[in-house]
């Protein structure tokens, strides 16, 4: 995963670490092999799909982003029954965000001076750097200082940008504590072992109004496609 340290800065410095650690206490221990990054954790450049041959490849093209859909047999508590938006996957490892694990905490606990944030929960993005936040924004135009993930979805880590988004009140966004990371070759091995299915990413799932239904809907799609295989 390539990191541009000059382009972005970490959002929400350790003044909120205590709250975020409460949010992710059950997920605080990184998985064996997960890599950690120093400095900015916002990768630079366009998102890439892994391009790995999988039984569900017929679900569509993976050129514009990929969901990792956890297999029913995946028991790791960090990822059981989850869907991960895969943002980077290359020789240096992999990087993504779990999109279907909201916490009981919301953005109003971070910024109580801003009204209306009670309806915006903080999501578990993964077990790596759980005291730092990233956010996904739904926007047709390319927002300055953010990175395109798939069409109409951009990744950010800058507090001021997020506050401007909130002030406009026009574009859907989701905030994530931590992210999901894999060491070089680790994700490839997990996919080969059958831990994950690859499904093309869609905006409607990233901003699904009922995140607890995302995994169920996608795993059913996987089941249908696998049943059609010769």
Q: What does this protein structure show overall?
A:
With 230 residues, the chain is of the alpha+beta class. Helix content is 19%, strand content 27%. It is built from five helices and ten strands. Strands 1, 2, 3, 4, 5, 6, 7, 8, 9 and 10 form a ten-stranded mixed sheet that branches. It is globular and about 55 Å long.
Q: What portion of residues is helical? A: 10-25%
What's the overall geometry? globular
Mean pLDDT: 78
Structural class: alpha+beta
Instruction: Give the count of helical stretches.
Output: 5
Would you identify the CATH architecture?
3-Layer(aba) Sandwich
Q: Specify the CATH homologous superfamily.
A: VC0467-like
* Quaternary structure: single chain
Regarding CATH, which class?
Alpha Beta
* Helix-strand pattern: HEEEEEEEEHEHEHH
CATH fold field value: VC0467-like
- The total tally of domains equals 1
Could you describe the largest sheet, including whether it forms a barrel? 10 strands, mixed
Distance between the termini: 36 Å
Write a short abstract of this structure.
With 230 residues, the chain is of the alpha+beta class. It has helices spanning 17-23, 159-168, 186-192, 203-206, 214-228, and strands spanning 66-70, 83-90, 93-98, 102-106, 121-124, 128-138, 147-150, 153-156, 173-182, 196-200. It has a single domain, classed as VC0467-like, CATH 3.40.1740.
SSE order and pairing:
Elements: H1 17-23, E1 66-70, E2 83-90, E3 93-98, E4 102-106, E5 121-124, E6 128-138, E7 147-150, E8 153-156, H2 159-168, E9 173-182, H3 186-192, E10 196-200, H4 203-206, H5 214-228
């Amino acid at each position: 995963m390539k990191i541009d340290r000059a382009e972005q800065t970490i959002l929400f410095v350790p003044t909120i670490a205590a709250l975020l650690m409460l949010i992710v206490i059950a997920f605080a221990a990184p998985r064996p092999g997960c890599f950690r990054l120093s400095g900015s954790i916002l990768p630079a450049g366009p998102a890439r799909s892994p391009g790995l041959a999988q039984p569900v490849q017929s679900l569509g093209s993976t050129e514009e982003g990929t969901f990792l859909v956890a297999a029913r047999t995946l028991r790791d508590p960090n990822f059981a029954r989850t869907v991960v938006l895969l943002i980077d996957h290359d020789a240096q490892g992999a990087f993504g965000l779990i999109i279907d694990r909201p916490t009981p905490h919301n953005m109003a606990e971070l910024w109580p001076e801003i009204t209306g944030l009670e309806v915006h929960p903080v999501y578990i993005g993964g077990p790596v750097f759980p005291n730092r936040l990233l956010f996904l924004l739904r926007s047709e135009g390319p927002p300055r200082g953010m990175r395109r993930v798939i069409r109409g979805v951009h990744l950010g880590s800058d507090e001021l940008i997020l506050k401007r988004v909130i002030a406009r009140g026009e574009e859907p966004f989701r905030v994530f504590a931590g992210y999901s990371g894999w060491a070089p070759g680790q994700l490839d091995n997990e996919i080969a072992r059958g831990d994950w299915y690859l499904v093309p990413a869609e905006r409607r799932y990233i901003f699904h109004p009922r995140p607890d239904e995302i995994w169920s809907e996608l795993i059913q799609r996987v089941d249908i496609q696998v049943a059609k295989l010769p």
